[in-house]
Every structure is written in C-alpha cells, then in structure tokens.
Amino acid sequence: MSNPPAVLKFGGSSFRSPEAYADLARALSERIAAERRPLAVVVSAMPGETERLRERLQQVNPHPADPSVAGLLTMADTVSAHLLATALHRAGRRATVLAGSQLGLTTDSTYMWARVREVDPAPLVGALAEHDVVVIPGGQAVDAHNRPTWLGKNSSDLSALLVAAVVGAGECEIHSDVDGIYSADPNLVTGTRLLPAVSYEVATALSLHGAKVLHRRAVRLAQQHGIAIVCRHNRAPFPAGTTISAVGSPTEAVIVNRRSVVLGYQDDAQADLAHAAFHAQGVDTTRLEGAPQVAVIGGYLDLEEFQRRHHLPPARVEGIPVCEVHGSRVTTHLAPDEYEAVVLAQRLHDDIAAPARRLTSV
C-alpha cells in the first residue's frame, strides 16, 4: 500500500461505559478527516466482560476444555468490536468488523495460547479498500479446521502488530489507561518513572517476566518487521509516552505481577520437564536458577488441571516472583504472598530510584 492505514489498538479500559464507544468513534472520525486514510482498529472487551464469561463457564464445568474456553472468552472482544462499529456508523463512517474467522490468521491448535502459522492478507486488505475503519476483536484467530483459537494474555497487542505487518505500517499505536511503560506498575508502586524509549529486547524481557506492558510475541513481531510501537493514553488528546523500537535508553525496572506464581518441584529434572510442557503449550514461564522452580507468568491458567492433563509431577505454589531489571540482567526474588510481593517491589524500586534522585539533586 502506498499510504498504509493507521493501525491502532484500544485496550479494555478504553470502554468503561457504552458512551465511551461513541466518544472514540468521534475521535476516529476526526482523524480520518485529517489524515485521509483508513484505520485498522483492534479492540479488547469492556472491563470485566471476559471474566464474567469465564465465571459462567466454570459454573457449568469447573475445568472446561481449552477449545470451549477459547471459543467462549473471545466473544467478549467480538461484542466490543461490534459496539465500536455501530458507533462509527452513527458518526457517518463506513465501518466493518473482521472477527477471528474472517481475518485470515490461521494458528496451531493449542487453542488458549495459539501460535500463528499462516497469514492471508486478502480479507484485511479488501476490507480496508472498502471501509473507513476495519474493527478487529483482539486475540482471535482460527486453526486449520476453522475452530476458534486465542493468542494468549494481552494478545490484542499481537493482533495489532500482525495487522500492522500485513498492511506495511511503519508504526503501531497501543492505547491504554497509561501512556507508556513505567519503571514499575504505577498502580502498585509509588515513585515510578516513565520510560520514554525502550528497545525491543528490553520490552521483550519485561513482558516475559510479567510486566503488564505488551505481548512478548507482539514485540518480537515488531522487531522482525521494523515496526515502531507507540504507547499512548486512551483518552483525547491521546498523548504518547513510550516508543519501543531498535533504539532504547538504559533501563532499570521492577516487575511485580500478582497473577504470576512460582511452582516448586522435587528436583531439577521435574522442573525442566514442567517448563518444557508449559512452553510447548505457549504458556509464558521462566525456569528459575538455583532451585527446581518454574515461574508461571500472568495467570489465566488452571494450574492443577494443566498439570493433570499433561501428566506433570505434583508442584507446590511457593510464592510470587518479583523481578529486578538492570539492562539485560534480570534477577528474580520470591515473595510469599501478594501483599509481601508489593512491599518487596516497592523496596527494590526505591533502591534503583535512589541514585537517580541523588543525581537530580546535585
């Protein structure tokens, strides 16, 4: 495409009420008028919608099979996409929705953490030629048998980067309730600093260890295609905070994700076996050094059922990982519970912030 469409992603916090869809539709309409090019917009579900579907599913079956989970939970994002599309229609714009079965993405059959195997650009390119806005529910695809699959946690980011690669965009905008990547989760830790420029390598490491930044495979895809990721706030005037690209500043950060857990096994052989099984199914894990432990990152997994299905040895939940990042070096600490994890993260962040405060006071 000579003038590629703009590619934007809006996370679930963008849609806290039905009125938010109308507000965003007006902003997108103004952008179309100003830039005179179509938009590909990836959206997530309204806050809480996915979890409500998960609860209903578990009321019927406490341990549902992955195909059922993927098929049901992705519906929440589809609803959000159609709400934005109808708001765009009301604003006078031609808009359509391309859900997972229509988008041209074919994955393997791991269902819940599926990996993309084939990309057919024709459906998306054709839709953009006929519409002002193509709205895409995040994280959706199908396997070779056209069964719904899910690309994993935070996978709306991955959907957006896949779209950007298909249309040849030089950048992809990720809109959320924070304007970028911070030195720690600002909702849990005080005194955090915005990181204005982060390299692909550092962003990948942050995501792998549980930072709520971007999908790790999304960052790798961006690096592969030379796409800059621009993190923006999801409210007008949509200020930019962090750019992820080949160039980044030296980074020090602390990662605490209260959904992550550390599993302890009897010996290294059992830990290695479990780590390999998680990895084969697309689940983000890190194999901790010095002990037979595996950190399972970010939750959204029935650990007991996963281990049973894959015939893994029994494991103990030993705590929550808290990670220090100093450039390319990551050190993982273990906290016994959520409260202590946040306390530890605050202390570690205070330690890395102290030198910066001393420099600014000189």
Structural class: alpha/beta
Q: Considering DSSP H and I runs of 4 or more, what fraction of the residues is helical? A: 25-40%
Structure annotation, total helices = 12
CA radius of gyration: 21 Å
**N-C termini distance:** 52 Å
- Enumerate the spans where pLDDT stays under 50 for 5 or more consecutive residues: 358-362
What strand order characterises the main sheet?
3-6-2-1-9-13-14-12
Q: What proportion strand?
A: 25-35%
Tell the overall outline.
globular
Work out the number of β strands.
20
Largest sheet: 8 strands, mixed
Q: Output mean pLDDT.
A: 92
Q: What is the topology?
A:
Elements: E1 6-10, H1 18-35, E2 39-43, H2 49-60, H3 66-73, H4 75-90, E3 95-97, H5 100-103, E4 105-107, E5 116-119, H6 122-130, E6 133-137, E7 140-143, E8 148-150, H7 155-167, E9 171-176, E10 181-182, E11 194-195, E12 197-199, H8 200-208, H9 216-225, E13 228-233, E14 240-245, E15 252-256, E16 261-264, H10 268-280, E17 285-287, E18 293-296, H11 303-309, E19 316-326, E20 329-335, H12 338-361
Parallel strand pairs: 1-2, 1-9, 2-6, 3-6, 4-7, 9-13, 12-14
Antiparallel strand pairs: 4-5, 7-8, 10-11, 13-14, 15-19, 16-18, 16-19, 17-18, 19-20
Helix pairs in contact: 1-4, 7-9, 8-9
Task: Give the gist of this structure.
The protein has 362 residues and is of the alpha/beta class. The chain has helices spanning 18-35, 49-60, 66-73, 75-90, 100-103, 122-130, 155-167, 200-208, 216-225, 268-280, 303-309, 338-361, and strands spanning 6-10, 39-43, 95-97, 105-107, 116-119, 133-137, 140-143, 148-150, 171-176, 181-182, 194-195, 197-199, 228-233, 240-245, 252-256, 261-264, 285-287, 293-296, 316-326, 329-335.
